[in-house]
Design goal:
With 472 residues, the chain is of the alpha+beta class. It is built from 18 helices and 16 strands. 39% of the residues lie in helices and 18% in strands.
């Protein structure tokens, strides 16, 4: 190292003494390290030697790495998230031999460089491979399995033979990611957005593309909530597409700003209780002519209020009332205006033309009790903003979706016949092979025709993500 810097003072460093000083520095600076537990473990295994400096300083690897990280704005991120100024200034100090005049300064400068390099490089590499923030930590209703960094990924920059080759290898290469990068570079404007709002919108969707949660299956159902669209994807191609209606959201006025999220409560995402969650699951069956088990929240806030105004409402809507599991024969005798009456009784809507789930629902396990389903309220599909449901996803062409999942054959014939029956009875029919379903959230994306598309941030999730991306 002394040879590369032209400063002979670094030849006087004793590695054993350096190790003691580095160990103490890691302990005292633990709050400023990217992952103090992993960092200390790695250096302990190497007797607290300057791993990164010894491996990558001689061939200018650290300098090249610093220059790569300094260009992270190309990914919609701030260089200072990775403390690049500290990294580069410490490098400059070493290269300018007059800056380090005695042995104590040499020890301190080498420690500063090692820890600055460690923070910048590991933070950057994990951001490129996995995303900077964990969606599970910032969103209250996020249930998609997403791979996050671990001790193995943290060690990669220390173990690679060529640091710059490694940094090149972790650059996202997907076509959709590169299209968003190009849009960012060209200052593309989203419809109705300012230049700054457009920049932030693209930045948060680049982060979503870095999350390791993308489909790997040959066939799956994909719902992009802000787009109000469902697609069946087979071997990378869209085999079926249709409109959907999704849950109502908190951003009712479609405010474009990404700066309104409450920064004083960063750890709290406060979704509207009707928002459709982000999740991945497996569609395992359908129910033809479904029975709707009406949730308590809907019963309390809607059903009993309608019943209080219209004594015939429940009968007209084919809604049965139960008390402690037993059917109430004459619900018209109940005082529906009484307090907590919606919690006293339970409600089920029988199959029929008025059933809120329509003629079929598509079932998949999830903790939010949502599903895809038909609806008698077809007019909503003509609205440009279709955030109108209680959280489930209403599909425009349910029979076509059933055929895309089941294929032609006896089971689909049963579905088709059942949906047209004049005497509808609930019937569960299992899929021969379970099909993955993704309920996702992208407000900027590359469609299958290679076009850049934008959507309104109906749930305000862009604002939440942007705040966390630039919180430091």
């Amino acid at each position: 190292m002394a040879k590369e810097t032209g400063n002979k003072i670094f030849n006087q460093i004793d590695m054993e003494e350096f190790g003691q000083k580095l160990k103490l520095a890691i302990e005292s600076r633990s709050k400023t390290l990217q992952n103090p537990k992993f960092t200390d473990a790695i250096y302990a295994e190497h007797q607290y030697e300057p791993i990164l400096t010894e491996k990558y300083f001689p061939d200018s690897g650290l300098l090249k790495a610093a220059n790569v990280i300094a260009q992270v704005e190309d990914h919609g991120l701030s260089p200072e998230t990775f403390k690049i100024s500290k990294f580069k200034s410490t490098l400059d100090k070493i290269y300018q031999k007059s800056e380090v005049k005695d042995l104590d300064a040499a020890y301190q400068t080498l420690i500063d460089l090692e820890l600055a390099a460690s923070y910048s490089i590991t933070t950057y590499s994990q951001a490129m491979e996995f995303g900077l923030v964990s969606p599970r930590k910032i969103y209250a209703q996020y249930y998609t399995k997403t791979k996050r960094p671990d001790s193995i990924s943290f060690r990669k920059p220390y173990q690679t033979k060529n640091l710059n080759t490694f940094l090149d290898s972790i650059q996202p290469q997907r076509a959709d990611y590169k299209m968003l990068q190009q849009a960012l570079k060209q200052h593309t404007l989203a419809p109705g957005r300012s230049a700054e709002e457009s920049k932030r919108l693209i930045a948060v969707n680049l982060e979503r593309l870095r999350w390791q949660n993308s489909p790997v299956e040959d066939k799956y159902v994909w719902v992009n909530i802000p787009e109000f669209q469902l697609q069946v994807i087979e071997k990378g191609q869209v085999s079926l597409a249709m409109k959907v209606c999704v849950g109502e959201g908190r951003n009712q006025n479609m405010a474009p700003s990404l700066t309104e999220y409450d920064e004083n409560e960063l750890e709290k995402d406060r979704p509207f209780n009707r928002e459709t969650p982000q999740l991945k699951s497996l569609i395992h069956s359908v129910q033809v002519n479904p029975v709707w088990n009406i949730p308590e929240s809907i019963a309390t806030n809607e059903i009993v209020k309608y019943a209080a105004k219209d004594r015939y409402y429940l009968g007209n809507k084919n809604i049965d009332v139960f008390y402690k599991g037993k059917l109430v024969e004459d619900p018209e005798t109940i005082d529906w205006s009484a307090a907590d009456v919606g919690k006293t009784y339970t409600f089920k809507q029988r199959p029929g033309d008025d059933n809120s789930l329509g003629k079929i629902k598509f079932l998949f396990n999830n903790q939010s009790s949502v599903y895809l389903h038909d609806t008698p309220a077809k007019a909503a599909f003509n609205q440009p903003v279709r955030a109108v449901s209680h959280g489930c996803v209403r599909v425009e062409q349910p029979q076509e979706l059933a055929k895309a999942l089941f294929g032609a054959g006896k089971k689909f014939d049963r579905i088709s016949t059942g949906m047209m029956s004049e005497d509808p009875k609930a019937e569960n029919i299992s899929l021969p092979k379970q099909i993955p379903v993704y309920l996702s959230y992208f407000t900027c994306w590359r469609n299958t025709a290679g076009e850049l598309k934008f959507a309104k941030d109906i749930y305000g999730l862009d604002a939440v993500l942007y705040t966390h991306l630039f919180r430091s």
